[in-house]
Amino acid sequence: MCSRGQIPVSCMLRPLEAPFRYLFGPGPSNVPPRILAAGGRPIIGHMHSEMFGIMNDIKKGIQYAFQTSNNMTLAMSGSGHTAMECAVFNIVEPGESVLVAINGIWGERVAEIAERMGAKVHTLFKTPGGHFTNAEIEQALAKHKPVLFFLAHGESSSGLVHPVDGVGDICHKYNCLLLVDSVASLGAAPLLMDQQNIDILYTGSQKALNAPPGTAPISFSERACHKMFNRKTKPVSYLLDMTHLSNYWGNDGKPERKYHHTGPVSGFFALRESLAILAEMGLENSWSHHTEVAEYLWKGLEDLGLKLFIKDKDLRLPSVTTIAIPEGYDWKELLAYIMKHHQIEFTGGLGPSVGMVLRIGLMGYNCNKANAAMALAALEDALKQCRKSKA
Amino acid sequence: MCSRGQIPVSCMLRPLEAPFRYLFGPGPSNVPPRILAAGGRPIIGHMHSEMFGIMNDIKKGIQYAFQTSNNMTLAMSGSGHTAMECAVFNIVEPGESVLVAINGIWGERVAEIAERMGAKVHTLFKTPGGHFTNAEIEQALAKHKPVLFFLAHGESSSGLVHPVDGVGDICHKYNCLLLVDSVASLGAAPLLMDQQNIDILYTGSQKALNAPPGTAPISFSERACHKMFNRKTKPVSYLLDMTHLSNYWGNDGKPERKYHHTGPVSGFFALRESLAILAEMGLENSWSHHTEVAEYLWKGLEDLGLKLFIKDKDLRLPSVTTIAIPEGYDWKELLAYIMKHHQIEFTGGLGPSVGMVLRIGLMGYNCNKANAAMALAALEDALKQCRKSKA
Q1: Cβ A41–B18 below 8 Å, yes or no?
Q2: For the complex shown, is ipTM > 0.95?
Q3: Where along this sequence does the record place binding of substrate (chains A, B) (predicted)?
């Protein structure tokens, strides 16, 4: 039958090709050989006891990376967006109020997700690069009485690391849970889930953790668990229902883990290895290392006459640096030149920051001064070659 | 701060350990070195042009494997359940009727997913091992007037391969779309999406395709596209919204692919390799090879005095064989013995077939007579060692 089939498959008889790239954008970042090797190991079954052991290790590794003792800690079988939807779907019931801080793309996404599942969505808004004071947040909480407040710690589209101190306490004063996105910041900028009273925290595997994309650590506080396990309606997604996921991860205290879905075994192997590397290095060392390399990069960029998009040093994300697009240049041309001649990926803006910034990410394995110097040299070359005439 | 942290991470300082296992259950199956190597390659960005080239190859490979010329063909960033939710979320609007054939676990899951998103769910029911006649299906379609009918082609919980001929035509007569699950059957049992008038077909990466779990091919007919792209409400999931996914996969005819989520780059490398292996072998060869090995296994099982759960040979799934649990044995003890002494995974039933069957899967790379002989020898040994006294 297939021989008479209409479907040509000649392209599949060529070998797989993928060029080497320096992934110095906002992620995914290069995966070190040790993590690639872990992800390339022969797999075992998703329900084997040894797999549960590896998942237990991942849980401990996330607890360390998040600085939390939350029992309800696990990794999603999907990217950061899966964790984002999981948080909203499980915590919020249709008709409930949600407050979303939008100062870049991630707040936009959470607002869209919450709207689709039937929440009443209220927003706090700043243009990219802006941030919210605790007074502004408190005022909005008092007004809208949301059950959930979303804040991006690492707003990678603008290069901003948002202050989190005190926000959890304000949320709890208004009986609201605090949901924080640390996809771009985890391991690069200080964040202490328990000390900072964050109720739900998630990240991605492919940023400072340097694993391939496809898994996403997430953790829920006791307070968050109380809300999500005492809801009246079932979450709209069976796949993301924490009742089932908590059992799959051995977090619900039941003696038996039941089949829910088939987790990404290779992805979990890689994630475990990436969390092990962070544990070996130590969180504080990782934070200070990212800051040191970022400061070296920032100085180099200023020496090239470029303007950093985030003026206040303390608000700059150490993992993803944003540069105001220099006058007299086409940003797409700069990026294409650097990719073609230096095999380096930088990126433009994302969502509301498109056309405003260039972005350089040096995360985890990629985060060192040699790479920063290579990035600066490539940019210097591009600035020489790509200047537009004034005409 | 971390040095004062409450979180022990000593477990993360041990190396990752995973034993070798013969994965002769219903999946995941063993991943051959060639696919492991593809998945272990250095990654590139999820939005690089070469990545789009690889995704284009994957699309062609799925079109071949499904025998479809559907433009709307892609791989989900998730396991088979992600494809299942994607199909239901995009095709059905709240309040619409859905008809689900339940003769094992997969129909149960689809019914649950459809109920959660607000569909009116009607079911056709058989106990595990049962199947539906086209007359029964037509009667139910006429009665319930659903917009979508679900049928599992490979019902891996019972070991049944369901006849599909004619079902698409009946569905279309009643203005209903046909959704088919081929997670356990693709590449092992004949299925021709276009010829059989299937509107939505999905599978998983980790069965006969032998890639690690975490990606799921799916395809939509023109008819299905017409329904899902002319709906009044947005699908409840942003992550699974086919408007965005079709753009990400270059299927919507727009010149630019926009960032939606970060796809599992390593998983796509591995999936491309697995589809290439199937294309090299040829679908018809793959089908006949699975049948030949399955018949060898079935004869061997009967020679051991065991009873196959599916009596009619033509209804037996060639990829997953179900055996009635032999009298005088504890099925959990048999499985544990075989795992301990032979490093082989077989499994028990799943969902409604728990306690009714043992399951042996020989899929793709694992599908050969040497493995079948090894499985039979292990089972023979276990039958000798694990007999219960009659007391």
Answers
A1: yes
A2: yes
A3: 359
- Å from A141 to nearest chain B CA? 25
For A304, half-sphere exposure in the C-beta direction (CA atoms, 13 angstrom radius) is 23
**Helix or strand (DSSP H, E) at B135:** helix B134-144
- Measured between CB atoms, which of B30, B77, B276 is closest to A214? B77
Burial of B234 (0-12, 13-18, 19+ CB in 10 A): middle
Q: Which of A6, A13, A51, A237 would best serve as a mutation to test chain B binding (most B beta carbons within 10 A)?
A: A237
Cross-chain Cβ contact A266/B264 below 8 Å: no
Tokens 């292990």 sit at which residue? B378
Taking CB atoms and an 8 Å cutoff, what residues of chain A touch B214? 77, 214, 263-267
**Do the strands A22-23 and A344-345 form a parallel or antiparallel pair, or are they unpaired?**
parallel
Distances (CA, A) of A311 to A25, A219, A323: 20, 32, 10
Q: Is A1 on the interface with B (CB under 8 A)?
A: yes
For tokens 């596209």, the residue is B225
For A113-166, give the secondary structure using H, E and C.
Answer: HHHHCCCEEEEEECCCCCCCCHHHHHHHHHHHCCCEEEEECEECCCCEECCCCC
Tokens for B274? 């697995």
Chain A from 170 to 199: CB within 8 A of any B CB: 190, 192, 194-195
- Pairing relation of β-strands A344-345 and A120-125? unpaired
Return d(Cα B61, Cα B354) in angstroms, integer.
35
Closest CA to B366 of B18, B33, B22, B20: B22
Residues in A touching B90 (Cβ below 8 Å): none
Contacts of B106 in chain A (CB under 8 A): none
For residue range B32-84, list pLDDT tens digits in order: 999 999 999 999 999 999 999 999 999 999 999 999 999 999 999 999 999 99
Q: Which residues of A touch B42 (CB under 8 A)?
A: 18, 20, 30-31, 36
Residue A41 annotated as binding site: no
DSSP E strand stretches across chain A = 22-23, 72-76, 97-102, 120-125, 148-152, 154-155, 160-161, 177-181, 200-202, 216-220, 320-324, 344-345, 347-348, 357-361
State whether the Cα torsion A336-A339-A342-A345 is positive or negative. positive
Q: Which residue among B2, B45, B284 places its CB closest to the CB of A28?
A: B45
pLDDT tens sequence for chain A (391 residues):
444 455 557 888 899 999 999 999 999 999 999 999 999 999 999 999 999 999 999 999 999 999 999 999 999 999 999 999 999 999 999 999 999 999 999 999 999 999 999 999 999 999 999 999 999 999 999 999 999 999 999 999 999 999 999 999 999 999 999 999 999 999 999 999 999 999 999 999 999 999 999 999 999 999 999 999 999 999 999 999 999 999 999 999 999 999 999 999 999 999 999 999 999 999 999 999 999 999 999 999 999 999 999 999 999 999 999 999 999 999 999 999 999 999 999 999 999 999 999 999 999 999 999 999 999 999 999 999 998 765 4
DSSP state of B353: G
Q: pTM of this prediction?
A: 0.97
- What residues in A contact B238, CB-CB < 8 Å? 81, 85, 109, 112-113, 116
Residues B28 and A102: their CA atoms lie apart, in Å, by 41
User: What residue type is A181 in one-letter code?
Assistant: D
Residue A300: closest CA among A376, A369, A381, A382: A376
Chain A within 8 Å of B343 (Cβ-Cβ)?
no
Q: Contacts for B304-308 with beta carbons within 8 Å, 24 or more apart?
A: B304/B376, B304/B379, B304/B380, B304/B383, B306/B379, B308/B159
Nearest residue in chain B measured CA to CA from A49: B18
Which positions ≥6 away from B62 have C-beta within 8 Å? B73, B74, B75, B217, B219, B275
Contact B278, B66 (CB under 8 A): no
- B211: number of Cβ within 10 Å: 32
